[in-house]
Design goal:
mainly alpha; about 200 residues; about 5% strand; about 50% helix
């Protein structure tokens, strides 16, 4: 298949390992409990769709969250061929309603895609149930808008002081040129670390 990043990978077998940019991705279906084995074929179809449309890291996370649910299902020691609302209720009971890890939201994304693709294995009312339980999230960009001194960005004065110190350290040969240039690149573009690692020189 072709990844969203453009790379080509094989999805044969029950152990997927591949390189996507600077990241090595592992998806091992052998780690799933036997109670959900009838769902593995359908799960693979859904994860392939995630790999083609979303990042490989996101697809791997979807597998991780499914495995968390599967471990709860396995406690009943009964093999299933369809995820039902009852399974989600048991999962919520296991991890509590606080859900600081956002497991419900991630499972909601997984099962919503699963049903939209028309793949067998998930009851139609599962995404509806999970959507009904969604909590209001944090206000996006609040730390930036309010200039939060802890979670927000550097102020103009703080950024000037920081880059002034960087320039001085470079002039005194206290830092290497590559670190000097990378620091300026971060200050100007604000990209994530992974994006810098994936940069290519033409």
């Amino acid at each position: 298949i072709t990844l969203r990043s453009g790379g080509q990978i094989s999805v044969q077998g029950d152990y997927w390992k591949f390189q996507d940019g600077v990241r090595t991705v592992y998806i091992d279906f052998n780690t799933l409990p036997v109670e959900v084995l009838p769902l593995v074929g359908s799960l693979k179809k859904v994860l392939i769709n995630f790999l083609q449309i979303n990042s490989s890291e996101y697809a791997a996370n979807m597998f991780y969250y499914f495995r968390r649910l599967a471990d709860v299902i396995a406690q009943k020691q009964q093999q299933i061929d369809c995820i039902e609302v009852l399974h989600l209720i048991n999962f919520i009971g296991e991890f509590g309603t606080d859900d600081k890890l956002g497991l419900e939201a991630q499972l909601s994304s997984l099962f919503k895609r699963w049903v939209e693709l028309g793949v067998d294995g998930v009851a139609d009312d599962v995404p509806i149930f999970l959507k009904s339980r969604r909590k209001k999230g944090n206000v996006k960009g609040e730390a930036v808008i309010t200039l939060d001194p802890v979670k927000g960005p550097l102020s103009d004065i703080e950024l000037q002081d920081l880059m002034g110190a960087v320039n001085k350290a470079h002039a005194q040969r206290k830092i290497e040129e590559k670190l000097f240039l990378l620091t300026w690149l971060i200050a100007v573009t604000g990209q994530r670390v992974g994006q810098y690692c994936a940069l290519k020189v033409k």
